Amino acid sequence: MSNKTEKIIRLSISYLILLVAVTIVIYPLLWVIGSSFNPGQSLSGSTMFPENPTIKHYSSLFDIEKSNYVLWYLNSMKISLITMVFAVISVAFTGYAFSRYRFIGRKNGLLTFLVLQMIPNFAALIAIFVLANRTGLLDSHAGLILIYVGGQIPMNTWLMKGYLDTIPKELDESARMDGAGHLRIFWQIIMPLSKPIIAVVALFSFIAPFGDFILARIMLRSEEKFTMGVGLYELVSKQFGNEFTTFAAGSVLIAIPITILFLSFQKYFISGLTAGGTKG
Amino acid sequence: MKKSLILLFMLIASIALLVACGPDREETTPVKTDETTTETETGEAETAEEPAKPEKLIVWEDTDKSAALKPAIESFEKEYGIKVEFKELGMADKMREQLRLDGPSGTGADVVTLPHDQIGQVVTEGLIQEIEVSDEVLSTFSESAVTAQKYDGKLYGLPKATETPVFIFNKALMPEAPETMDEVYAFSTDFTDGKKFGFLALWDNFYFAHGVIGGMGGYVFQENDGALDRDDIGLNNDGAVAGAEYIQKWYAEGLFPKGIIGESGGSAKDGLFNEGKVASVMDGPWAFQSMKDAGIDIGVAAMPTLPNGEHMKTFMGVKGWHVSAFTEHAYWSTKLVEWLTNEENAKIRFELTQEIPPVTTLIADPIIADNEGAKAVALQSQYAVPMPNIPEMGEVWGPAASALQTIATGKAEPKAAMDDAVKNIKTNIETNHPSK
Amino acid sequence: MMNSNVTTKHRKNAGLLSIIPGFGQFYNKQFVKGIIFLVLTIAFFSSFSQTLNWGFWGLITLGEIPLLDHSIFLLIDGIIALLVAIIGLGIYAFNIYDAYNNGKKRDEGFLLNSVREQYHNLLDNGFPYLMISPGFLLLIFVVIFPIIFVILLSFTNYDLYHSPPAKLVDWVGIQNYIDIFKLDLWRSTFFGVLGWTIVWTFGATTLQVAIGVFLAVVINQKDLKGKAFFRTILILPWAVPAFVSILIFSGMFNESFGVVNTQILSMLGIDAIPWMTEELWTRFALILIQSWLGFPFIFAMTTGVLQSIPEELYEAANVDGASISQKFRGITLPMVLYATAPILITQYTFNFNNFNVIFLFNGGGPAIPGQNAGGTDILISWIYQLTMTSGQYGKAAAITMLLSLIVVVVALWQFKRTNSFKEEDMM
Fold this sequence. Notes:
The structure holds three protein chains of three kinds.
Chain A: H1 2-36, H2 56-62, H3 69-100, H4 106-116, H5 125-134, H6 141-165, H7 169-177, H8 182-193, H9 195-211, H10 214-219, H11 228-237, H12 244-271
Chain B: H1 2-48, E1 56-62, H2 66-80, E2 83-89, H3 94-105, E3 111-115, H4 119-125, H5 135-138, H6 143-148, E4 150-151, E5 154-155, E6 158-163, E7 166-170, H7 181-191, E8 197-200, H8 206-215, E9 219-224, E10 227-234, H9 238-252, H10 265-274, E11 278-283, H11 288-293, E12 298-301, E13 315-323, H12 330-341, H13 343-353, H14 360-364, H15 366-369, H16 372-383, E14 385-386, H17 394-408, H18 414-432
Parallel strand pairs in B: 1-2, 1-3, 8-11, 13-14
Antiparallel strand pairs in B: 3-13, 4-5, 6-13, 7-11, 7-12, 9-10
Chain C: H1 4-7, H2 9-17, H3 23-27, H4 31-61, H5 71-107, H6 115-153, H7 175-182, H8 184-219, H9 227-239, H10 242-252, H11 259-267, H12 279-308, H13 311-319, H14 324-352, H15 355-362, H16 379-388, H17 393-417
Helix pairs in contact in C: 2-5, 4-5, 5-6, 6-17, 7-17, 8-12, 8-14, 9-12, 10-15, 12-14, 12-15, 14-17, 16-17
């Protein structure tokens, strides 16, 4: 009996907390969505529930005659997807190597990976530019993708390694007994068990290029190669331009694919980080 | 043993590598040198006699302004048979950034457009080059616009358009532009109620505040014989302080809301005006279009006179056309700059982009004289001063804005704040700009 | 012992011979391997000798003739040459090592591996290297290379008045580092900014971690319904690019017209709060915003970890009659912190240098009378404005390096403390 009342109280408090959290999280987002349907242009004039909603900001974004947004959107999708694929592959490799093999330079390699991501490198943009210029990768999506993939490696390798460490080594060893080669163990035994972390890495490496404007702004020169992030940034940074509602519409468009991606990977987050392996 | 042996070999190997590049250096360097010197030499030679025409020239134009460029380059192509390509780039920062990177790589433009207050800096960095044009050409422009294109007494470009803040009013709320700020003040005290505002200006931003401070007698750098004296800063003289006190009055009495202070102040102000909640604002000609788009019937006039009877000494910005230091075709690039700024093309520019060219004959032309906005800008320009274009100006904006913001929020007394600002500016200049 | 003369013969000969790559292998009668090394070497020199010559010359001199030599580009070419040379030297060292090792085997009387065996050997021992090398190469050029650039830049006098192409940049040793400590500009403001930077780093990060962990634990309760729904909603702030969210917040917190003051607070009967003009409130708003931006990440991580905690632990605790908070402190929190420690530390270091949120929200403002830093400027944003607005690139690089050094040292020290590096399983 007391157990039951305790449970009810506990759950009620939990729901209450979650309700507050959800409100706080969703309020600014709803507000952005609301703004994007406002007829005016300004921030201060927008309301969450506009009296006469309009889709003109969306249609102006999608108007191929006047804006390149459709093109930029496709560019962003393309870049993010390719980055995701390559990042997942290389991170799976590096994570696996660090988790399963003991080799010279392993410990230092891991430490280096950690340290690298702490150094702010906005002063180094010019270096990246010149490197790209020297290798002929300036103003090309390939160059940008390479940079994004490289940038995703340190952090995600750590995540991947941490997860792989929880998969019992006995699995590999018994497979090796059965005569499986390195690649087969990696590909047929470890990878299927790593779906959740792969989902996480995939999500990370998709989000990063999608929201980036700093690197893309340096690397991409021709308008038809821009990404959504650059386009949006240019929209707000126009010195005296004030097109907040259009900006809001663009933001909503950016958030949609990421949300969808997250929803479709949700299953793996929930299935848990070690659900697939036998617990050690 | 094993390790030390390897180390030894690595040492030998690296020495071998370093030695190897010693002699080769002589071989590599001259090759590179030759290439580049020919470029520079021809570039200089070209100014003397009419050199061979290049196949094409590349122009970087400000965003959304290429409409005015197209007819001009078409006629240029017809006249000289040189193809001209253009690309739009944000003038405020992107133009300079890309010139820095693309110029030396050989992928930059031949002709670029920049706001004149960046000239000192880009010249110091060696991004644009001095140009030679005849006095005849120079005399077509207003004197102050040409001065703005000069740095250290040398000419670095030709003026394309000028702009300066003016008084913009919503005709539905304010039928006529007042003559004096006292009238504006009286109107504003009646009109402002926390939801509606009689007059708004971003006076916590030094660009706009200079109108008041300069009008009251302050100045940034004293001008001596056409050169700006970086050691003589007049932002805390009596006039400047009086200006700062005047500014503080507007905030302290609640005529300017706190929401227009700081980074996002500009968009708050624009938003309110476009919703019809503000009777008048101080803003530049770039704002006209979005106001009209928002359906506001605007009137434009020169800034009303200050309480001391003086006109506001607003900052004038001059956009100019410049020849890149990296071009191989300096002669033809200069020709193109002249072409782009000649009377005919200046007129086209005004018609298509509403930018006001400082071409003296045009200012009297009915096309500008009958245009309310253009007339107001031209009128206000008479009282305006060009923004200082020496690199030291970069040290002024931050401290000045900080001082103005603390004045606006009432955290500091005008005199003390302006003294502090000047002190900071001076230290920054001494630290970052070694005296010549 | 008696043939000690003989025992070292092969290894010495092979090692010495392989000063010319491949010859040591030939000596060991491993011809295929030898040819591979030789070809690699020739290919390396024929394709990179230009790069190396030009690069090293540029790196040392930083150019000799203004307008002609672009010092910064030369510096970058030099770093590229340096990286190429290091990779080359690595292969070279391996060549010697390999010849020496096989010579040693011969000395000790072992039979050398056949080509087929070598291939298998390579696959076995080399497999981890093979796996990390594509990623690692990319890392070198995309991440390490720019960092080397900043490090080297901090030893040059690159500023507005030494800007290529007009002027050359020169090496100035540690002058920038000395100057930083001599600047008058700093003294008055430095400690104030440092104090807030520390408060900010710990305040904002701890709050975002606490919220993330707490919400993950709440949602993870077995009998709670709608897990998927809540998780989806709570992850949303992550889906919007940060710069977009920050700009939107900056509008929402506008003192006179933002919704926070005009709607939310007025609804609660609270007077308008000076979010943008009072230092304290701007700081408060910034911490809240960063929490909003940062907690979903922690939330997602924790959710994952929570599900890997064996149910038996809780059952055992239940048998012992542990309360909810006891279970949380005794089981959940240690497990979560243990598993996510490295990530948590990187969150702190991230916020220490979180330029974007400070800069985009209110430009580091509000202004403080008599100070050249804004009320919410953290070290990185303050320094950025001090140096970059006046083109002090060399100094900016030096300060970046100093800040990075602080962060890295503190972080490494923390890593050591978390035991992440002691447990064989974690490592």
